[in-house]
Amino acid sequence: MIELQNVTLAYNGKVVLDNVSFKAGFHEKIAVLGGSGVGKTTLLRLILGLTRPDSGKIYVNGQDITVMKEGELRDIRMNFSIVFQEGALFDSMNVRENTAFCLREYTEYSEDEIEKRVRELLKLLGIEDAINLMPEELSGGMKRRVAIARSLAGCQPKMMLYDEATTGLDPLTADNICNLINDLSRGEPSERVGFMIVTHKVTDAIKVAERYLYVKDGKIAFDGNLDQLVKTRDQQLRIFTDELHTAERCL
Ligand SMILES: Nc1ncnc2c1ncn2[C@@H]1O[C@H](COP(=O)(O)OP(=O)(O)O)[C@@H](O)[C@H]1O
Ligand SMILES: [Mg+2]
User: Fold this and answer.
1) Atom 2 of ligand 1: nearest residue by CA position
2) Would the pLDDT of 50 be above 80?
3) Which long-range contacts (CB under 8 A, 24 or more apart) does 57-66 make?
4) Does 90 have pLDDT greater than 60?
5) Is residue 45 in contact with ligand 1, taking CB distance under 6 Å?
6) Gap between the Cα atoms of 15 and 7, Å rounded
7) Angle between helices 111-124 and 95-106 (to 10 degrees)
8) Residue 108 above 90 pLDDT?
9) Which of 82, 85, 168, 89 is nearest to 127 (CA)?
10) pTM of the model as a whole
11) pLDDT band at 105, cuts 50/70/90?
12) Percent of the chain scored above 70 by pLDDT?
């Protein structure tokens, strides 16, 4: 369980998040929508303790992470698998080495165990054949898959955090990544790994999410399901959801 209580954060006097509160279970499938620079990435960073709020509390599993030291935060972060917006792979390392990076850095696994785990993950993500390829030899979608494999390698996450997982990909590849996101969060709520996906692409969000948050002017201006989302009266959010109506009309 994640809980933000009255979280406020400003950068250089500019308020990014203004008294934001919300609760989410690890099993939930959440899309965080919003324009550029509204604080979506910041929200993920706050949950991981990578950024601290100016005021307010953030609880993960009932523990207040805003008062934690770096060492304690490491345990908190193990609850999550994070695919950052940049999704950057190390250019000088092949897919095997990129995927194994966190295992080498943060675990005591033997080389044999690392190889086994890396192969398992690449198989899970459907890119086993690319194990010896360098990043420059990969398509955008494959790079994103390797980034997801790498984020899964170090831990058994309770929740996945995807920052703009489909941004910059062509529609077919984006669709592929949406399928993968769904595959990784299969099952009944009680047993599945949930996710928060940050995106400005509503058309991708609706392929995966069950709950939608819309960030605007430092607030969570909308929090609801798809039915409520398409009926929203928020004019700015409608600019996002209009994309859905347009897609529908084209069918
Ligand atoms: N480390 C930082 N220092 C100063 N400003 C920052 C920093 N991180 C983010 N910001 C600012 O905070 C706002 C929200 O950023 P971000 O969360 O990255 O937005 P989003 O992911 O929604 O595009 C932006 O105006 C951004 O410039
Ligand atoms: Mg961002």
Assistant:
1) 11
2) yes
3) 57/3, 57/4, 57/5, 57/6, 57/7, 58/2, 58/3, 58/4, 58/5, 58/7, 59/1, 59/2, 59/3, 59/5, 60/1, 60/2, 61/1, 62/1
4) yes
5) no
6) 11
7) 130
8) no
9) 89
10) 0.90
11) confident
12) 97
CATH 3.40.50.300 fits 2-79+158-250, yes or no: yes
Instruction: Give the mean pLDDT of 53-60.
Output: 98
Closest to 49 measured CA to CA, from 28, 19, 24, 80? 80
Residue 134 Cα to ligand 2 middle (Å) = 26
Burial of 107 (0-12, 13-18, 19+ CB in 10 A): middle
Cα separation, 162 vs 204, whole angstroms: 12
Residue 152: the pLDDT is: 85
CATH 3.40.50.300-classified regions of the chain? 2-79+158-250
Q: Per residue in 184-205, pLDDT tens?
A: 899 998 889 999 999 988 999 9
Which H or E element spans position 50? none
What ligand 1 atom has the least distance to the C-alpha of 43? Answer: 17
Judge if the beta carbon of residue 114 lies within 6 A of ligand 1.
no
Q: Which atom of ligand 1 is nearest to the CA of 164?
A: 21
Residue 218's nearest CA partner among 40, 16, 56 is 16
Distance between CA atoms of residues 34 and 175, nearest Å? 20
Pocket test for ligand 1, best of 8, 14, 16, 240 (most atoms within 8 A of CB): 16
Q: What does the pLDDT average to over 233-246?
A: 82
Percent of the chain exceeding pLDDT 90 equals 62
